[in-house]
Amino acid sequence: MTSTSNLVDPRWLEPPSRPDIDDAASRIRNVLVETPLLENERVNERIGRRLLIKAEGLQRTGSFKARGAWNRLSLLDADEVGRGIVALSSGNHGHAVAWAAYRLGLKPVVILMPLGSPNAKVEHIKDWGAEVVFFDRYVADRAALMRHWTLERGFVAISAYDDRRIIAGAATLAREALQQTDGLGVTPDALLAGCAGGGLVAGCALALEGRTNDTSVWGVEPEDYDDTARSLAIGRRVANGKATGSVCDALLAPIPGELTFSINARLLAGVRAVADEFALKAMKMLFKNFGLVVEPGGALALGALLADPSYLREKTVVVVTSGSNVDEGLYATALGDASEKG
Amino acid sequence: MTSTSNLVDPRWLEPPSRPDIDDAASRIRNVLVETPLLENERVNERIGRRLLIKAEGLQRTGSFKARGAWNRLSLLDADEVGRGIVALSSGNHGHAVAWAAYRLGLKPVVILMPLGSPNAKVEHIKDWGAEVVFFDRYVADRAALMRHWTLERGFVAISAYDDRRIIAGAATLAREALQQTDGLGVTPDALLAGCAGGGLVAGCALALEGRTNDTSVWGVEPEDYDDTARSLAIGRRVANGKATGSVCDALLAPIPGELTFSINARLLAGVRAVADEFALKAMKMLFKNFGLVVEPGGALALGALLADPSYLREKTVVVVTSGSNVDEGLYATALGDASEKG
Predict the structure, then answer these.
(1) Which of B292, B295, B325, B339 is the best mutation test for A, with the most CBs of A within 10 A?
(2) How far apart are CA A144 and CA A146, in angstroms?
């Protein structure tokens, strides 16, 4: 959620190579989940596309973040072991880091989270033995917080996206999806995923580059949190004007990452901004037709198809449902209020 | 839900062979979903077993029934094509038959369902173009209903479980799970699944027979609907005393199947009866920790572990969450009421 590049060896601020991605895929095999690609012909007819849901909310820790966190913590340098781990996160990255550290026997772990984060995310992080330190997203100096934990306390910072090892992990998702579409004998026209710091779409775009020229990669942002769209439009990183207000808590990073933006500026087909109501409608559709619990930020990419029937019309679209960590109350509300027939 | 053996060629009332199961596995590849096996170390610690969730609610049509229905309808005899399809079902089998018929271009399809079936199941069945004919589960003569549709109307009856082609389909679930546990380098001590007509556990037990002697197969029934447990105890099929009253609508078949009972009597390690409240607790645990929507009947097998901490203690247990078709209101209730920490 903030750049920590001033603390990071510059070699980690290059895009991951194909061997980096292949190595990450080997590293996660039989530890992480090969999440299924789900389809429903009636839903396809209803929405006017061939929809292939990459059900990544089933991943370890309930989000794609486990791919990067596992890869990153499996690659700790010798001088990083035993120093403690710190990560800044709206929840899913912190959850993934806390779990990976637990599995690898690394401690202590501190997760810096904005006040008001979903209980589900806070509880899971604590459950893996990590300490949660809250900050006020309006007034906290995130870079200063990270400097405290890294420079003064000696912890190793695990960036949520501005790190080639993290992006290589995220890239394994699209690599896997492409193997699955190969199994179905189809090449997707597009892959859509939520975009906050931009690591997931950056990794996916890198994984597809050179493997297929026929699949465009799109990011999806909440309305009013379209920092990546606006940054791409003017060719440099600009911040969101708001810090809270969308139900998509996982997609509220203040500004695109440096490394991720450089990748996304080169490779993304575009970024769509979508209203929260379509995230909730998508959640209900995923409940009714796919048996999937998906959190709002994880459902917004599907929401982009529901919001604009002309967008990618008649195309074969892989939609990443990227997370499933949602409080019961909000989930019940989505099932009740999203009145659209799923 | 009723025996149709008087209408069925006796060759289909033999247990499926290993080649039958292998053929079924080939037939479903790239049409059905290879559902993932999910794990959470903290849940394992909390419940005192290594729990491997076979997430079959993600299957096409939201239940394991798609395996048997697809296999069966792919194997229609020449004289069966074009005659229409009829099935008696509490919902999931009918949903699976309606979808498979849609995919294979077979019609018309009639699904005979008890009044009071969940809306989610009725709507899905209609959505695939099938006609739903309701009956009163207290007074209807199910065998007479089936005779009407088959003998008078000429439809082909698709049994929910008393058919080797259906059981071969169900068996692919355990075959797949065993390949997945092989990948993890572990042999499960037990496999648990819900039991109504008994086709799922029968198929699973057949799939494991001869592949491993180390994995016991258990059925799980709702309290007061323990017809299979009581039938096994006395060595012949006896009916349930009640027809409604459990929230596990998928597990209320009136009496064990003939073919399935003969298999289960030989191969099951046992059958547990579990109270509804543990199905609801399991649903909440699956929501919080695995991102899975599971219906009550699909969650009851996990409920068996929650209900009795000493049962299969310290063992590695594959639990099949066999379906995800649940109405929103009941689901929200399960999330709210099941107060146990997931």
Answers:
(1) B292
(2) 5
Of B38, B184, B294, the CB nearest to A30: B184
How far is Cα B130 from Cα B102, in angstroms, rounded to an integer?
9
Banded model confidence at residue A242, pLDDT cuts 50, 70, 90: confident
pLDDT tens for A131-186 read 999 999 889 999 999 999 999 999 999 999 999 999 999 999 999 999 999 999 99
Q: What is the pLDDT of residues B35-66, one digit of tens each?
A: 999 999 999 999 999 999 999 999 999 999 99
What is the predicted pLDDT for the residue at A342?
A: 43
> A35 — contact with chain B (CB < 8 Å)?
yes
Instruction: Look at residue A3 in the predicted model and tell me its pLDDT.
Output: 42
Residue A179 CB neighbours (<10 A): 12
Q: What's the ipTM? A: 0.95
Name the residue of chain A whose CA is nearest to B335's CA. Answer: A328
Neighbours of B243 (CB within 10 A): 14
* Structure tokens that stand for B190 in this block: 């037990």
Question: Which residues from chain B sit within 8 angstroms of residue A291, using beta carbons?
Answer: 57-58, 62, 292-294, 324
In eight-state DSSP terms, residue A292 is B
Chain B residues within an 8 Å CB radius of A36: 33-36, 58
Q: Quick one: closest CA in A to B321, which residue?
A: A291
Check pLDDT > 60 for residue A341: no
Q: Yes or no: say if B171 and B293 are a contact pair by the CB < 8 Å rule.
A: no
A120 touches chain B (CB under 8 A): yes
Whether A34 has its CB under 8 Å from any CB of chain B: the answer is yes
Cβ–Cβ contact B13 with A under 8 A: no
Tell me the nearest-neighbour CA distance from B328 into chain A, angstroms. 6
pTM of the model: 0.96
- Residues in B closer than 8 angstroms to A102, CB to CB, are 41
Are the beta carbons of B324 and A34 separated by less than 8 Å?
A: no
Instruction: Assess contact for B269 and B214: CB atoms under 8 A.
Output: no
Orientation angle between helical segments A119-127 and A92-104, nearest 10 degrees: 10
What are the tens digits of pLDDT across the range B113-142? 999 999 999 999 999 999 999 999 889 999
